Amino acid sequence: MDFKESVYSESAGYAFYKTSFISFLRPAFIKCVSLIFYNFFFCQHRAAFLPGRIPVNNVDHSLDEKIPFVPSWVTIYLDFVYFWTRMVTFFLKRYRHRVYAQIADFVASMGRLYAFAAEVYRKNLSTTKRPFYIARPRFFLIHLLDPHLMCIPSLHVMVVIYAYKKFNAIAKSLGEEEKLKEQALEMKQGALAISQAILYVKQHSVNCIAAALYAMTCFDPALFPSSEAEAFTALLFGPPPVSGGIPAECRIHPSAAPSTQLPEADQAEIKSHILCLYRHFLSERDEKRFWGEPLINFLRSSPVKK
What are the two backbone dihedrals, phi and then psi, of residue 259, each rounded to the nearest 5 degrees? Predict the structure, then answer.
């Protein structure tokens, strides 16, 4: 790939500037920001300051102990917001008004994604054991700003999956699917890297990934059917291909992820568990009832946070 055309070489700030100042895009930007702020930040911090109003369950699994705590993955972990905003920049710079409608829909729907996940959080919160590690400034900020009460489903995984799938969809709508196939692959690699990072920095359990895959299938079954969820899981822990080198401005390109390799037997066991739990959630789903009921049932069968 010519990295001058890399999504990772783009600025996230440009996306915020354009979506807030272009009149056609501004309503979607306002809706997105307000939904994210209310459904993630406000609701989570309110629950932290007023405990006891919503049950909180621990969702750790024994397989989490097979995944080492690797602090160097934190940069990849924290990239998930920049991940999708760089994508907005990439399209706006190259296609301008041709892509306004698709970008407005994508930005607004990212806010709806947060509200969708919050339908579970409002009924039952969840947490995992995470080491109190503040040797690096980024971890200090994580512990300071994140009460760690919204683990199932993992919004990190939902956001990056939605971004790479919508990249494909927007490229197709523009008739540029073939031209942008390298960038589409890059986006998928980035989604996989961030999904792995949440495990290596101990912000989520393997159970949270299965729940996120299920939530995405419920949120947009045409965009993320079960076949895509299974294919995505199969690629976890695989090293991303590197081509052309990594330029200085692409510090958090998936190819730059720390070299951490789990034993193949552990990889297989973890991926098998994620798929089995994902399939279990799907089998429990009743189209006539609340989509999150299988997740609520799972949470209420998990240990209560002490």
Answer: -80, 100
**Paired tokens of 109:** 């729907």
Q: Which segments of the chain are extended strands (E)? A: 56-58, 125-127
Contacting residues for 253 by C-beta, under 8 A, at least 6 apart: 6, 8, 186, 190, 246
DSSP code of residue 150:
B
Q: Which segments within 101-260 are labelled E, that is strand?
A: 125-127
Quick check: 215 pLDDT over 70? yes
Q: How far apart are CA 129 and CA 133, in angstroms?
A: 12
For residue 96, how far is the Cα from the chain centroid? Answer: 26
Residue identified by tokens 């729907």 is: 109
- C-beta of residue 186 within 8 angstroms of C-beta of residue 8: yes
- Whether the CB-CB separation of 129 and 222 falls below 8 Å is answered with no
Q: How far apart are CA 228 and CA 48, in angstroms?
A: 35
Q: How far apart are CA 285 and CA 269, in angstroms?
A: 25
The model's pTM: 0.93
The encoded tokens of residue 75 equal 């940069």
Cα–Cα dist 170/103, whole Å: 8
Could you check whether the bond before residue 153 is cis, i.e. omega within 30 degrees of 0?
yes
Q: What is the pLDDT of residue 252?
A: 63
DSSP class of residue 223 equals T
Q: What is the SS3 assignment for 60?
A: coil
CA 238 to chain CA mean position, Å? 18
What's 230-256 look like in SS3? HHHHHCCCCCCCCCCCCCCCCCCCHHH
Per-residue model confidence as pLDDT tens digits over 4-24: 588 998 999 999 999 999 999
